[in-house]
Amino acid sequence: MVQDLLIAVVAAAAVGALYLAAAARVVRQYERGVVLRLGRLREEVRPPGFTMVLPGVDRLRKVNMQIVTMPVPAQDGITRDNVTVRVDAVIYFKVVDPASAVVEVEDYRFAVSQMAQTSLRSIIGKSDLDDLLSNREKLNQGLELMIDSPAVGWGVQIDRVEIKDVSLPETMKRSMARQAEADRERRARVINADAELQASKKLAEAASEMSTQPAALQLRLLQTVVAVAAEKNSTLVLPFPVELLRFLERAQQGAPGAPAPEVAQAPDSGARAPDSGASAPDGARPSDSGAPDPRPAVSSQPYAHH
């Protein structure tokens, strides 16, 4: 009798151990447990730790509450300005309602991935190429709103959406490179022209200042000669200073015994012209200065005819 009672106790303990092993569940810290009892959702969500379920009656679904990083496959599309591009992105989301994530959608990860791809294609078609390249923050916010609207009903919250890369055709890359090079060349020319304008104003001021002191120009010339002479492999051609020529000219004019320059005098209006009847030597023609005519004299006798 005692032996049968002992066997019954051991059997009951074994059954209890088996039941405990089948009913015991452990929910980790970053998970939440959703219980379906006979196919119906239990309102209570199991917290992290040890929990019990009815074997064969309850079914426990563990839902990860961590932030999920999901890459969005690259999508080919045509922008609003008719440029073919290839854009890929990354999405960060997490589950905020475990019951809705289990009941409302079959696979919330796959649903979020498909919604992100379609939204990315829509964003590409609505945007210009310049917006995709330089205004990504605005596009990221629009993409986040487009994905978050249906995801709220699935118990999923979209934290962040980022466009990773925008791939362009090679022809478009070359065109953009030429455009950027032309723009840089234009800015360089504008800056150079501005510098020339400022330099011309400064040179005009310097010329105006030097015009008051002519020796300043010669000093500037000598400074330039010194700067050029520093290069030992150069040939220096020094022009003759104009000021020195003027100095020599003034010195020559002020030297004693220097012939005075001839000054042409206008004939006196009151002077009388020489008498036409005055006799002049043969072979000489009277002139205003009284000097003999250097041309040969011509005989006044008639030629003899034979």
Number of strands: 8
Helix/strand order, N-terminal first: HEEEEEEEHHHHEHHH
Question: What spatial order of strands do you see in the largest sheet?
Answer: 3-2-5
Q: How many angstroms separate the termini?
A: 204 Å
Structure, briefly:
This protein has helices spanning 2-23, 98-103, 108-126, 129-134, 136-151, 170-212, 214-229, 242-254, and strands at 24-27, 31-37, 40-46, 49-52, 58-64, 68-78, 84-95, 156-167. With 306 residues, it is an alpha+beta fold.
Describe this structure in words.
By secondary structure, the protein is of the alpha+beta class. The protein has helices at 2-23, 98-103, 108-126, 129-134, 136-151, 170-212, 214-229, 242-254, and strands at residues 24-27, 31-37, 40-46, 49-52, 58-64, 68-78, 84-95, 156-167. The longest helix is centred in the middle third of the chain and has 43 residues, at 170-212. Mean pLDDT is 78; it is low at 263-306.
SSE blueprint and pairings:
Layout: H1 2-23, E1 24-27, E2 31-37, E3 40-46, E4 49-52, E5 58-64, E6 68-78, E7 84-95, H2 98-103, H3 108-126, H4 129-134, H5 136-151, E8 156-167, H6 170-212, H7 214-229, H8 242-254
Helix pairs in contact: 3-5
